[in-house]
Amino acid sequence: MNIKIGTRGSKLALTQADFVAEKIKKIMPETVIEIRIIKTSGDIMQDISLLKIGGKGVFVKEIEDALLSSAVDLAVHSMKDVPTEIPDGLEFAAILQREDARDILVSRDNRKIEQMPKGAKIGTGSLRRSAQLLDILPDAVIVPLRGNLDTRLRKIETEKLDGVIVAAAGMKRMGFVQRITQFLPVELMLPAVGQGALGLEVRTGDNELKKILAKINHAPTNTEITAERSFLRYLGGGCRLPIAALGKLEGDKLSLEGLVASPQGSGIIRDKVKGTIFEAEELGKKLAEMILERGGKKFLELGY
Prior knowledge:
- The protein is α/β, with parallel strands linked by helices.
- The protein has three domains: about 1-100 and about 195-215, Periplasmic binding protein-like II (D-Maltodextrin-Binding Protein, domain 2), CATH 3.40.190.10; about 105-185, Periplasmic binding protein-like II (D-Maltodextrin-Binding Protein, domain 2, 3-Layer(aba) Sandwich), CATH 3.40.190; about 235-300, Porphobilinogen deaminase, C-terminal domain (Double Stranded RNA Binding Domain, 2-Layer Sandwich).
- Helix content is about 35%, strand content about 25%.
- Strands 2-1-3-10-4 form a five-stranded mixed sheet, with helices on both faces.
- The longest helix is centred in the C-terminal third of the chain and has 22 residues, at about 280-300.
- It is globular and about 60 Å long.
C-alpha cells in the first residue's frame, strides 16, 4: 500500500509526520510512505495576526484541499489548529495518544512566572495565553509572536523578551525539554482545545486506510478531545475569543474544565463538569451553556 502524508513544512510538523509514518510502518511494514509538504496560508503570512487572516483554519485548509483532490491520502494535524467544522467528505480516522497538554515558559535568566519583574515582556501569539497571563501578571506587556518554534524561542534574545509561552508538546517532540524554565500548571494556564494531540484526517470513503489508522487510535484521548471540541463548537468560538478547555478521562469518568475570557484578561469565566465516558459530546454542550449563562455570552456579544 502507498500512502501520501500531507503536512506543514516546519521542523515540528515534519517530526510529527515522521512519527505517524513510523507508527503505520509498525503495523504495515510493507507500506510505502511519502511525506508531502503543503504550505498553508498560516505559514505564508507569518507577519500578520491569525485574527486578520482567518483564525484557526489557516493552518489546515490547504492540506484539507489536497486531501479532497487526492493529492495526499492522509493529513497530520495538531488538533488545536483544527476548526470544529471540517469539510464534507473528510473525517478523523484516529487521534493519537496525547503528549503533555500544558503550556510552558522559556525565560531569560531562568525566571519562573512568579519571579517576573514588573512590566515583563512576554511573547505569545495566543489570545488564550495572553488573557490568562494578564490575569496572573496584570502589568505584563504582551509581545505578539508568530513563526515556528525555533523562531519564537530566538525572539527572547532578538526582541529582548523576558520570556515566551509555548506548548509543552512541541518542546518535547523537538527534544527541547532542557530549555524549559517552567511547566505552567493547568490551574494557572488552561490549555487550548486539542492541545498536545495529533489528529489523522482522511477521505470519508477511504475504508482501507481507515482500518489501518483505527489500530493507532488512542480511545481515551479521542474521548477527551471530543468533549473539548464539543465545548468549543457550542460556544461558537475560535481564534477570536480566548477559550481554553481540558478533558480528563480516569477510568470511565470524564471531567471537562473550560474557560472563556476577555482578551485583555479583565474577566475570566471558568467552570467544570463531570460525567461518564459516554457523555463526551453532552458534557461539552453542558459546560458551554453554563459558562455562557455565567456571563460568557457578553464576551461573544461584545465582538470578542
